[in-house]
Structures are given as structure tokens and as C-alpha cells.
Amino acid sequence: MKIDRKAARSLIMHAALDIFSKEDFEKATMRYIAEKADVTTSIIYKHFKNKDDLYVQLISTIIERTSRELDMHLLGLSNTRNKIFSMTHYYLNFFQDNIHIARLVYANTKLSYWYEFEKAYTTARTSGSLFVKIMEEGQRKGELRGDINLNMLGHIYHGALRQIVVHWLYNQDTYRLSDLADGFAEAIYEASRVKEAGSEPFICPFMRGADTQEGPKPAAST
After folding, report:
1. How many domains does the chain contain in total?
2. pTM of the model
3. What angle do CA 14, 126, 84 make, to 5 degrees?
4. 125 shares its domain with 155
5. Angstrom distance (rounded) from CA 195 to CA 182
6. How far apart are alpha carbons 130 and 56 in whole angstroms?
7. Helix residue ranges per DSSP H, 3-105
8. Of 22, 67, 80, 183, which has the most beta carbons under 10 Å away?
9. Are residues 128 and 164 in the same domain?
């Protein structure tokens, strides 16, 4: 039975997701993907130049999808705290409901791949910058502290997100990933928000700009 071009591409992408999420990328073959998709390898090559191109297109499609959905998820929210919580809930619920994608993005994709494949890196970087934009807006509104290094905070947020998902992948039978959303979001917000007058400020050296960091002071002699 002949299938149209769009349907064939969809079958190939779903087969690639299943295989790349379970197998080592280097060991996965186009023949294996073709068998899984129930198409010929020649059909795959009509859509993708090679395995690298298929991988990049798959990763980019996933990131573009999550970016669109996240934009809709944040629509109408003005409070920075609500945006942080909504973003975190979206990510953790998405990966909980799409375990194949969680495995592909956080477990089976080596960090070096993000730098080797330019399109995947550019797409991921654009998506990751949304968190920083939300925090910048929070600073302009006076909701968040102005002395925080937001690029560093972005690394902390997405790095912690990766660690949370990876840990869940290896322990998923013991808890729900989405149950961690509130605690994670609250930790990020509390470290960033403007404190009430008279309260002791929270100072994290990893978030401060390099020009504001000070070394440890010597203990007072007695």
C-alpha cells in the first residue's frame, strides 16, 4: 500500500524516536529504522540526507513543539512567580507523559551532540532563553532581585531540570515526576525574589555577577 509523503515522514520520525530513545545513536542504523517504520530505506533517504539529519530534524521538531506549547501555557500570566511555576509544571508533566522523549533528550543524547549539530543547538538555545526572558521581565517589574546573573541562573534551572528528569527515569516506579514541580519552582523563585524590608537577603555566589563576588573573609581573632 502506497503512503503519502507526510504520512511516511511521520512514520519515520516515530520509529526514529522509539529507536534513538532506547538504543545508542551510533549503533542505530537506517535499515533498523526503516524496518520499524515499515518503509524502505530509499523512502527514508527521500526525506533525510542521512542518520545525522534525521536525528537533528527529530530533536528540532520536539523542541519546536514544546516551545509552541509552552508559549500557549504561559499565555495570560503576568506574575513572574506564576510563570516560573507554570513553566516547571509544563516541562515535568510533558516528560512524564512522553517518556520516550525524556529518554531521548536527557538520557540517550550526549551533551556533545548539542554542539556538534548546529540546528539542534540553535533551536535548543532559543527555547532555553525563554526562562531568562521571564526572569529579565521579573527584574524590570521589581519582582526579582537585580543583582542575579540570569544567564548563570538559566544554567542552574535547566541543569537541575535535566538532573531531575534523569533521576526519575531510573526511579520512575517510586514517584511521579510532576510531584516535584512545586518544590523545584519554589526553590528557584525564593532564591530570586526581592525580599521584604528587614529580612536577611539570600546571597548565592553562583548567581551573582563575577564583579560582585567576594572571597571568604578571615575569621575574627578572639
Report:
1. 2
2. 0.80
3. 95
4. yes
5. 20
6. 21
7. 5-20, 30-37, 41-47, 51-74, 80-97, 99-102
8. 80
9. yes
